[in-house]
Amino acid sequence: YSSFMDALRDAKALMTTSARPTSIETIDDTVLQLAMEDFVWDSVAAFFPATGSTPIRGINLIEFNDDDPERLAERVQAFTDHLSQDPTVARLGYTLAEGRPQIQKVYAMRKRSVGLLGNVQGEKRPIAFVEDTAVPPEHLADFISEFRAALDARKLSYGMFGHVDAGVLHVRPALDMKDPEQEKLIREISDQVADLTQKYGGLLWGEHGKGVRSEYGPKFFGELYPSLQRVKAAFDPHNQLNPGKIASPAEGSELIAKDSDPELLTVDGVTLRGQLDRTIDERAWQAYDAAVYCNGNGACYNYDVDDPMCPSWKATRDRVHSPKGRASLMREWLRLQSQAGIDVVEESRKKKAENGWGFIKSFPLRVANTLSRKQHHDYSHQVYDAMAGCLACKSCAGQCPIKVNVPQFRSQFLEVYHGRYLRPLRDYIIGGTEFMLPTLAKVAPLYNALLNQRWVDSLMRKGLGMSDSPQLSRASVKKQLRAWGVAEATPTSLALLTEQQRANSVIIVQDAFTSHFEAKLVLDVVELLSRLNLRVFVMPFSANGKPLQVQGFLGAFERTAEKQAKRLRALAEFDVPMVGIDPAMTLTYRQEYVKALGREQVPNVLMLQEWLATRINTLAPRQLNLTDPGFKLLSHCTEKTNAPGSPKAWQQVFAAFGLELELMATGCCGMSGTYGHETRNVATSKTIYAQSWQPQVEAEQNTGKLLATGYSCRSQVKRYSAQTLPHPLQALLALLTPVSHPYPNNMQERATK
């Protein structure tokens, strides 16, 4: 519909059609727009096609079900015939969702409406206080028209969705509850909407109970209210059970027969979260926006082991180890810091700017604080314990309706926390991994031999807190590429290309993990792309900085990011696409880099499938006849939650070669970078792996068919299932090898052209 009111008024008419719809749900343009910006839209976009120049401002979800399939089909046909023939309402169109899988997708989008409303930008956030009004369905459109007028008169934004067939509509006006003046609107709007619902013969609480809105009970129940008081007195004479809600206990002369009961709670007489939030320093509030906007919707309390969010919650069932739990702890930590006069923003700035001498100078104080940790209570330690359990997989950042980003505020917290307390040596090892690997790779045989020694393994586990460290690749990416004649991506080499050559070229941006632990994968990617007649350049290895960011070394991360971004900008001038192999490392460029440096400072680095999907028409050799093994894809959780269209891009790439690729529903593998290698996390990591990945990997029917996009995922599978899962491009290369020229000869031919 082109307007929400059109959708509402049409719903009233549609309920009375001879087809007898089972239910009608409605969603307004505010919620619809937020859904379009959410990962859920990828699964339902086909049901809401573009309608030309007229934007969609409202939708109705009309459900039909029946015990008889034939009768169901007849009802649906009669209904669609009515839509086609009825000229009384200007509808932009309709689509059909048939069968449980399709219907579940649509309702999953509808279910996220509550959370999505909380993701509006700015300090004003949707607040639930008049959100479940109910009036007779035949009066709903007129009621909502007046309701909207009341909110519009106060210049408030809001979203609406709900059960039109039942006359229940969810409305959440956006208010900044930190502002005392806006807090007063709770009373003002509640009174007006209560009167409005009575006018139309409805209720203020149509679905979610009275709660602190019970003060309106006497007015709605009238002469029946004393009966409620007698029931309350019979079962709870001392008013101990939920006091102040529904009714007060009273008998005889104490009975209330008026419009109010002074014993009941009032909407503006209870403590509101905004009253605590306004005590947080405004600069700290803005700096920790990834945490403070959590509205408690609880989408992260997810029991589905085949859904990425949230692995630590699913493994522990401890709410402290959920995004909601961590955000709540962080909000309270910020409040306590502000209350104590501590400027966490300034502490962070100083820590980022700290040089070697500053680190040494602050060392004695951090030692003293650490040694006296047990003698002095510091709420920060509770927050630290909660943050330590986070995998930094970023599924919350992609799947939470509010986009609560635990890894982001976790890093911010760790930076400040370790400005006061010592870091474990483990943190420095993880943070410095990218810088150490090139040197260690030069002595890979010796390094690997040492890792196989029991005493070294014991030292790593007990002394450094690291377990099951992976072995370095024996092959050298740099040496092999030089032997094959693959050029390094430098401004000099790219400047020699013609415009046509640039259009057929690609730059591989190396990452520390695939280049040093999976060198064969890097070489296989180069080989496959070369077989596809693409000119491949490989950017010389340099640190990405993600391990630094994860561990809260934010100053070092920003300096590393500035250097890497400068190198990328130098290459980006030549308009040759840049792609990364590991999804988590590659996504760092478009997320953490952009936050640290600004969007204009960071060139676009694509994931492999994103770039390959743009070349579908010219990707595969013609008349290619490949045997289809029926591959199944296990995507990295960061990848599929933060770039939700990326798994389908892999399907498009495989389809170009005439191959099917099934997208498997999996949760987190439990490795997530270095999380699974930290000794303190090994047990939880194993539990997470056993929940979702292990059954898929070890299922007999999946043998030889599984592909994995993430380095950490493949590493976890190798550790716990003793299997080596190929990358999708390695699978394609294996199929293409029998029908292609031997790679070195082909590469040398191309290199001379």
From TrEMBL:
<comment type="similarity">
    <text>In the N-terminal section; belongs to the FAD-binding oxidoreductase/transferase type 4 family.</text>
</comment>
<dbReference type="GO" id="GO:0051990">
    <property type="term" value="F:(R)-2-hydroxyglutarate dehydrogenase activity"/>
</dbReference>
<keyword id="KW-0411">Iron-sulfur</keyword>
<dbReference type="GO" id="GO:0051539">
    <property type="term" value="F:4 iron, 4 sulfur cluster binding"/>
</dbReference>
<protein>
    <recommendedName>
        <fullName>D-2-hydroxyglutarate dehydrogenase</fullName>
        <ecNumber>1.1.99.39</ecNumber>
    </recommendedName>
</protein>
<dbReference type="GO" id="GO:0050660">
    <property type="term" value="F:flavin adenine dinucleotide binding"/>
</dbReference>
<dbReference type="Pfam" id="PF02913">
    <property type="entry name" value="FAD-oxidase_C"/>
</dbReference>
<dbReference type="InterPro" id="IPR004113">
    <property type="entry name" value="FAD-bd_oxidored_4_C"/>
</dbReference>
<dbReference type="GO" id="GO:0046872">
    <property type="term" value="F:metal ion binding"/>
</dbReference>
<dbReference type="InterPro" id="IPR017900">
    <property type="entry name" value="4Fe4S_Fe_S_CS"/>
</dbReference>
<keyword id="KW-0479">Metal-binding</keyword>
<keyword id="KW-0408">Iron</keyword>
<keyword id="KW-0285">Flavoprotein</keyword>
<feature type="domain" description="FAD-binding oxidoreductase/transferase type 4 C-terminal">
    <location>
        <begin position="1"/>
        <end position="246"/>
    </location>
</feature>
<dbReference type="InterPro" id="IPR016164">
    <property type="entry name" value="FAD-linked_Oxase-like_C"/>
</dbReference>
<keyword id="KW-0560">Oxidoreductase</keyword>
<keyword id="KW-0004">4Fe-4S</keyword>
<keyword id="KW-0274">FAD</keyword>
